[in-house]
Fold each of these.
Amino acid sequence: TVGAVAVDCAGNVACATSTGGIRNKMVGRVGDSPVIGCGGYADNFSGAVSCTGHGESILKVTLARLVLLHIEQGKSVAKASQLSLQHMGDRVQGAGGVVVVSPSGQWAATFTTERMAWAAAEHDVLWFGINPNE
Amino acid sequence: MPAVVVVHGGAWAIPDERAKQCVDGVKAAACQGLSVLRGGGSALDAVEAAVRALEDNPVFNAGHGATLNIDGEVELDAIIVDGKTLSCGAVSSVKNIANPVTLARAVMDKTSHVMLTGEGANLFAESIGVSSVPTDSLVTEYEKREWEKHKHYVTGVMENFNSKWAHD
């Protein structure tokens, strides 16, 4: 799965997610990626999220919308991401990752799997990582 | 207001031999998205461009690096959401489309619906001039080898679900 979130100079946010699914999946199986609020969501009120990980778990906790709910309740984008992924692990034993951006330009790349390749571009700075806590 | 693009290339147990390719790919995609913003594009344009770059990179499980289902076919899913208007477009189980994210955006821009699936999504693609591509062009030799290996596993996909090796 791949995904992106962005905020433009007008404070508008957007997200996109795309996937080939899971290897050897049943014909017709659809995971979280194309489901609104699960594989991705964006709202200028709170931010934009793109998700990756175990699709059925992400669907069960509506992960993208859950991250934005925490932001709406006052959490930072990083804390909202951590809490949401922790909730998914606790409730349905699923692992995954998210990239998040707020309308003010705060961003986070958080995951509970072994690795997730991510990159963030802002101004003239490119941030990137693949291992936890990079 | 700062313009920012953040991308991911999938969360899983990425093996060491693929790590550099994955990092290089997400860096290039993030830069692609930011260049769209710098050129006056919207956040929506930027995420589409960034995800297209990732779909075109066979290192990632999307577009040209897609996994195969149990029948050895490609079935792709994608979504795009505009935070300004809450407009959304999505496709699921679409076959042999190189850039499903752009097809998802077309669903958003050209129809009154949110999601098209399967044969309907492919028919819509054809109707707006998005041509399908051969399965072989979307599947890498690495994926063919992995698919062959995993289809002989005693455990099926359901048993592997939620393991570090098997997820989207």
Amino acid sequence: MLPVLVVHGGAGFIPKERVQLSCAGVQAAVRGGYSKLQGQGSAMDAVVEAVTLLENDHHYNAGLGSVLNAKGEVEMDAIVMDGRYLASGAVSAVRKVANPVQLARLVMDKTSHLCLTGEGASQFARSMGFPEVPGESLITEYARMRWKKNLAADANPVECQMGKMG
Amino acid sequence: TVGAVAVDAEGNIACATSTGGMLNKMEGRVGDTACIGCGGYADNRVGAVSPTGEGEAIMKVTLARLILFHMEQGRSAEAAADEALAYMKERVGGLGGVVVVDPQGEWSVRFSSLQMAWAAAQQQTLHYGLYTGEHFTQNI
């Protein structure tokens, strides 16, 4: 068996000034995750490592640099799935967490549930000693700029994301 | 949205996906990412998928599981992804992209959007691209 890891950033349109760094980010993430596969790491270790690296890269809509909701806050979703046993864990509308994918893995590993949401996910994170970060620390100037632009009544956030603004 | 799929040396398969969601979304809106079969699926017997794109459209067609369904019917990862993405576009007008692996370590990157940054690593080779049809390689 030849180990393999494949990663993606978001589908849509990436503004010219962000193209190079977006491409560099996925390459760095795949290198980081692949190093796990080359060691003793499992496929699960590799995908969580790669996605963690992408969450920490502010050029992507996940973790640091996430887009903002209508209130100007960050709410994130994440999922992991292990193909051995169809085990899965997910979090939704989670706040104040730098790496939701790691929290999703904890949901899979430490609970009998598939998905925890909102404040429940936050309580679970605290009970696991998972680090909480200020919500503001996940917001970038770029995310704030896009949020402001799309507050207009006639704005179409889906169109902006997929076709115009990236 | 970001995501990954992998097959390890023992043939085990996994996927992970993470997102901040949709720009200026309603508070409490949850998209495809947190939903099993939509924002990701992994089964050692079939393969794994991590998608990105318009979350509501992905949920309506359960994109990740749909691709694996096509693979169960004998399609390659690439053909299955193309078929499912075309179905999503035709049926609900949604655009997106996916990364896919199968248990043999065959992999595919497909998208119906303008761009999707992607990268893959296998046999000490790094593969990457951004636009449709782009596929560069370099040694790791």
Amino acid sequence: AFDEDRVVRLPGQTKDIPFGMYSGYLNGSDGTHLHYVFVESTGNPATDPLLLWLNGGPGCSSMLGFFTEQGPFRVTKTGASIEPNPFAWNQLASMIFLESPAGVGYSYNDNGNYTIDDDGASYNNLQAIKSFFIKFPQFKRNDFYLSGESYAGVYIPTLSIRLLNETSINYKGFAIGNGYLDQVKLGNSKVFFSYYHGLIDRDQWSALTSQCCSNGVGEDSCEFVQSSNPTCTKLVGKLTEAIESSGLNPYNIYDRCQTNNDLRRTTSLSSPGIGRKYGNHKHASAWKLIKATLTGHSDHDIEIVPRSTRTNSQLKGS
Amino acid sequence: GSPPCIDDADLESYLNRRDVRSALNIHPSAGQWTDCNVVVEESYINIYRTLKDQVSQSIRAGKRGLIYNGDVDLVCDFLGDQWFVEDLGFPSITPYIPWHVNNQTAGFVKHFEGFVMATVRGSGHMVPTDQPQVAYEMIKLFLKGQNF
């Protein structure tokens, strides 16, 4: 084990961590240092599989995965203590949580260069994996799997292709949750999903299908995203506005949205920068992905109106 | 993207504590921890609009795949990913059938040659957060190479 990176106990814990935990940096290319947390399996680390987890974004930290999803610990609401997660995946596999690309979470680049594309991200992720096996060579023979969610739907397949050529790594497979696997399909399906879940009414649906579909209503006959009909495009734009202003939690339409809490934080914090982070950026980020799929444009083309610039009546309405 | 309706303020507060950074061996060059980095997000360049080629090639190379979706997520909804999976063109082994955890329907699943597509009922985007036990059973089945 790479003892310099060893974590024995985290602040908020009263006992030592009962399995191997390591936190430090793995090297990418050109001065890139990607932060990782590695937790050994509580079963048999020598034979259990090794599973890499990547959160998406792009730009979001895998510490979210570690502390709020499948990692071994949960930070309590007050942040004062750490609790075990009874459904932690490191009961099944040793897990690497990697903060990627540089600039995400605690990861950084010596040159302060944080512009990267899909290929650069997957290349750095591969370099980081190789760096991991240099630190922990005893895991090189374990079955190795990739996993992640959301924009990791891009990270994982692009990394997978690179791993196919790495015969020294015992790469076995991949798991992708709610992946950003196909922009156009996700844009088109979103219209169906919205109707099937009652987010738009029958009149809107009829208008959309009459303008955007030919030869019936279905996956193959409706083109909401790349339609050449300007009326269809306009209707899809209205739909996008309608679901955005609905106030729904886009990540789980049946869960509550903590918007009020976000807004309270925004107004109670003295730093506008911090407030913007808690309140507006998160909304802008989520709706950006939705708009990107519905309009067929990349994230960069889309102008988002931050929540704080909306009028009071708009906020009350939502 | 980052989870817009989930409050990560306590986690951000925790991960920016000096003692926590020290315990995690964080380098002084690393900035303040945020759940999602605006600079990275805004400067990131998306190349691939579909990952069909990469996923197909990986499966053809014998790598096992699991594509799963919480079924009430609007951002990357299950229907779009289901269309993606069907479009890969691999023959299916089972029809689209329910799968179970604790005698309850955990979601629906379809096995293909080399990979499996599964939904997680009542889960949003962050499946291990929303349905932790089902997510645990799901990844267990996948890692052990068992049918759902």
Amino acid sequence: RSAQHPPITLSNLCRPRRLYISFSDVGWENWIIAPQGYLANYCLGECPFPLTAELNSTNHAILQTMVHSLDPQGTPQPCCVPVRLSPISILYYDNSDNVVLRHYADMVVDECGCR
Amino acid sequence: SSALALELSLQESLLLKSLGLSAKPSPKTPIPVPPVLWRIFQRRKTQPSMNKEPVDACRVEEFDVPGDIIRVFTDQGHFIPKGQPQGQLCLRKRLYFNLSMLEEDENVTMAQLEIKFHHNSYHTSSQGQIFELRLSQPSQVSLQGMPEPRQKLLVEQSFAQLHKSLLFNLSMVARDWRMHNRNLGLVLEVAVSGGDEVNELQGLCTSIDSFLDTSLLVVTLSQQCQVSRRRR
């Protein structure tokens, strides 16, 4: 059986894409003091067969792409997801108008992988 | 469109909850950002994110304590009439910090009281005269809001000069407020002694008029961080 997929190029492989989140876009500018926004990024792209080491795949993902290549309808390709995230600090007013500085984990996508 | 608005509102509340907030804050009278928080924020911002060693998000390096949340509480206490003269009492004030914003699963790892004056008092005190600062914890408050005589003395310190900023470690006190869910605040007293002339002591007292305010910096470790530290 042959899968109907567009040709895989380097540009559409799974990798982090640029996404700037502005807190004013979500209506939070009144209570978030800093930063006004940050580079959060996101993951997008194909996880094609055969998976290479650059795609940060797991053994399970490698097997899944093998099965997908044999049965494209029954088994999907692995997903392109964040595999390494980093924290950021946010300075804001809380519900009692105190100033708070909080370190939030998992806010910035540094690396993506096929999982 | 109303279904979309409802969905957006639900998503927002879910995210706010994961950020540790019960609702979207709407500051009525935003206070200036305390310089210490700006300094820490700027230092973290300039740290390269792709370090070999990942930054420990659950430690406040500036104070060398575990924690991921730093709050600065403003004092909500009122001045207390000085009453009968005891030596030369210059200042008597109740300090109250509302820690109810702290969530159940947060652990207080540090609390630091800062007492601020407009200026140092180097030029006002003369030889032999000292400032005495007392900080005590009332065990009961009367109906009039005045502290009862029974007080636990926390700090008693003498200074030849008063500095612009005085820092005191109140970690144990803050933990006690949290543990017993009972916060009656503190009483701050500043007196002068050692001078011969009453007028001279009164003159020294006027330098205390430069008293600005007090704030309590509290570092806490959230449940989220406690779990990730254990996992690591």
